[in-house]
Amino acid sequence: MTPASESPIRAPRTEQTDQSCKISVVLPVFNEQDCLPELYHRLSEVLRDDGTERVGTATNARVDLGRSACGPQAAGVGSAHVETADFRQGRTTTDPAAEADFGSTSSLPAETLNDSREYEIIFVDDGSTDESFRVLREIAAADPRVRVVKFTRNFGQTHAMAAGITLCRGEVIVTMDADLQNDPADIPRLLEELDKGYHCVSGWRERRQDKVLTRKIPSMAANWMMSFVFGVPLHDYGCSLKAYSARFLKSVSLYGEMHRFVPALIAWQGGRVAEIPVRHHARTKGVSKYGLGRVPKVLLDMILLKFMSGYASRPLHFFGAIGLVSILAGVWVGAVTWYYRYVLDFRGVDLLPLVLLTMLLFIMGGHTILIGLLAEIGIRTYYESQDKKPYVVDCVLNP
Question: pTM of the prediction?
Answer without folding.
Answer: 0.67
